[in-house]
Inverse folding.
């Protein structure tokens, strides 16, 4: 009994010491909450050296937290009790947050570096006039293939994925919108259609794809493609970049007939505690040198025109990641659909998965 | 008396806050549609939907198979463990994998089963050629059973260990053969452990969802997949709760079926 008591006391003392230690660490840099900037961003989505540089340059202290899906981030912010000063949601989530009055409008007089953003990435339909958001990175949905298993000319277009030669050799991303985007575009429809008939048609089209579908997976696709588990996959440009850096037989294509283009954007939540720090950070990240460094580190495409000029030619000349103007014109942005329609997409997708065997 | 009531407070609080309240909330939530209006439509949708009904059958069927496989492996394992000299040590080895995060174990299996993984390398080495192992029913069942086995072995082992050796000796003295002793003495006395094991395996297996995607490549769809989708993607919490209610009802049925004979056989 005595021994047990000693052990319990020891554990309690240790925990107290650890708690004290972490509190001391948090407060060592000092400055109080007026100097604290809380950022909520996707995991592995910034060059950490830039955070230290920002801290040195401005004297703010950065508290950096990460999320792994728009939906989980949105749920957390909606519940309240959070004090994030800067968040990086995707475009359809910006639209949703706007609708739910979760965002603070941006004061463009304080965004001194906004002019570096290329004109074609400003004033997007999800946020006209960039009243609430500043683009951070952008990317596409496309086809990744292994040149040892398929020829390049056989996987340039969505419709080619239906080729019987790809039997049991195709991986899809587990997301209703993206899989339907592929089917809708191959039928010449909009990726934002709300018509049940058109969606049903797309689903029928998808059902004929099932003999080719090997698996419907999420992040694991990176590992599977790197390990040659399948010849072709449908995935996002950022993930593709990661896979290609590991397996040099992989290549990425954005079909020229169209695809989805997405944007991740910096926004300031309404509940932000330190808006001055958030503006300072946005301006810091828009600084061409910093934006270029970040784009080189993360590997996604930057909307920052000045930064793009600073990037090495081998990056910006890569048509897979900076598609030619002809393809760019055909890329479509996801609009935030009514929950009911979103439900239809997902129900039809679930049914497709259900009978995919 | 007052002391006894005081002692029950933490337990009662726990039960009310973390068991009863969530159940009531799920039940309540299942009566609302996506725009927040009261409705019975979720249940009607569920009962008339070919997709959900097939999914339910799928879930029950796979959970049944997983439970059967784990039981067939676990009973002999527990039986042998009980007779080994250092049984606590061997038991520890069975429990050890539960200390490792479920996701990590699943990822390890991806490495083993992939086309370039160790198992295929071995198959090629012995001249059997490489095979598609991932995304098959067999690999899904294998991983699910692997994960559930400790939860089946433990209760069976405990119930076997509780059987007094004098009962077995008596049975042998009275002329029963090895098999008869097992059939008439050991098996009935270990039934409570088997039932506890079935409950511990069948119920979680009904709503597996991570493994269905990671190992099954979404070729196996269970109700867990649908619940995840409704809560995360479509934000249709009402429908998600309705499916949750179906699972809860299924669990009560399992508890009832496996708990029922307790009074009958309870000769203690």
């Amino acid at each position: 009994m005595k021994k047990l008591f000693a052990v319990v006391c020891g554990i309690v003392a240790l925990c107290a010491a650890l708690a004290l230690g972490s509190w001391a660490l948090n407060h060592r840099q000092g400055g109080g909450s007026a100097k604290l900037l809380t950022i909520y961003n996707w995991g592995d989505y910034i060059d950490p050296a830039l955070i230290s540089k920002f801290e040195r340059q401005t004297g703010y202290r950065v508290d950096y937290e990460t999320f792994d899906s728009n939906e989980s981030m949105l749920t957390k912010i909606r519940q309240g009790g959070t004090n994030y000063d800067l968040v990086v949601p995707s475009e359809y989530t910006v639209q949703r947050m706007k609708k739910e009055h979760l965002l603070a409008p941006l004061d463009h007089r304080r965004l001194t570096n906004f002019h570096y953003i290329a004109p074609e990435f400003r004033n997007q339909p999800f946020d006209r006039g960039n009243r609430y958001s500043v683009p951070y990175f952008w990317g596409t949905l496309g086809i990744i293939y292994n040149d040892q298993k398929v020829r390049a000319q056989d996987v340039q277009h969505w419709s080619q994925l239906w080729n019987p030669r790809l039997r049991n050799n195709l991986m899809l991303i587990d997301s209703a919108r993206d899989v339907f985007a592929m089917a809708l575009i191959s039928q010449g429809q909009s990726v934002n259609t709300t018509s049940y008939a058109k969606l049903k048609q797309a689903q029928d089209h998808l059902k004929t794809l099932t003999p080719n579908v090997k698996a419907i997976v999420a992040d694991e696709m990176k590992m599977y493609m790197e390990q040659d588990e399948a010849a072709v996959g449908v995935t996002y440009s950022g993930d593709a970049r990661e896979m290609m850096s590991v397996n040099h037989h992989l290549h990425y294509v954005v079909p020229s007939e169209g695809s989805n283009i997405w944007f991740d954007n910096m926004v300031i939540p309404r509940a932000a505690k330190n808006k001055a720090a958030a503006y300072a950070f946005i301006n810091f990240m828009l600084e061409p040198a910093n934006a270029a460094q970040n784009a080189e580190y993360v590997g996604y495409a930057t909307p920052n025109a000045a930064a793009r000029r600073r990037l090495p030619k081998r990056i910006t000349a890569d048509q897979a990641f900076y598609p030619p103007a002809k393809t760019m014109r055909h890329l479509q942005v996801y609009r935030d659909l009514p929950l009911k329609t979103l439900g239809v997409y997902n129900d039809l997708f679930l049914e497709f998965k259900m009978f995919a065997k | 008396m007052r002391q006894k009531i005081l002692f029950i407070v933490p337990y009662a609080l726990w039960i009310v806050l973390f068991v009863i309240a969530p159940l009531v909330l799920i039940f309540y939530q299942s009566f609302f549609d996506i725009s927040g209006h009261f409705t019975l439509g979720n249940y009607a949708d569920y009962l008339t939907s070919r997709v959900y009904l097939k999914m339910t059958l799928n879930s029950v069927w796979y959970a049944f198979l997983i439970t059967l496989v784990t039981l067939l492996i676990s009973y002999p394992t527990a039986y042998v463990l009980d007779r080994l000299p250092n049984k606590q040590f061997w038991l520890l080895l069975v429990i050890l994998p539960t200390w490792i995060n479920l996701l990590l174990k699943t990822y390890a299996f991806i490495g083993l089963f992939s086309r370039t993984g160790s198992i295929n390398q071995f198959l090629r080495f012995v001249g059997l050629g490489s095979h598609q192992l991932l995304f098959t029913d067999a690999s899904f069942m294998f991983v699910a059973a692997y994960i559930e086995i400790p939860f089946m072995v433990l209760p069976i082992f405990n119930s076997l260990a509780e059987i007094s050796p004098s009962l077995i000796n008596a049975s042998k003295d009275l002329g029963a053969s090895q098999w008869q002793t097992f059939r008439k003495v050991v098996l009935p006395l270990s039934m409570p452990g088997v039932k506890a094991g079935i409950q511990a395996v069948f119920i979680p297996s009904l709503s597996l969802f991570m493994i269905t995607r990671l190992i099954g490549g979404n070729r196996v769809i269970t109700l867990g997949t649908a619940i995840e989708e409704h809560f995360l993607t479509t934000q249709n919490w009402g429908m998600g709760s309705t499916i949750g209610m179906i699972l809860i009802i299924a669990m009560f049925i399992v508890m009832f079926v496996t708990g029922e004979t307790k009074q009958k056989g309870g000769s203690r």
About this structure: Chain B touches chain A through 28 residues (CB under 8 Å). The two ends of chain B are 28 Å apart (CA to CA). The domain at 40-261 of chain B is CATH 1.10.3720.10 (MetI-like fold). Confidence is low (pLDDT under 50) at residues 262-268 of chain B.
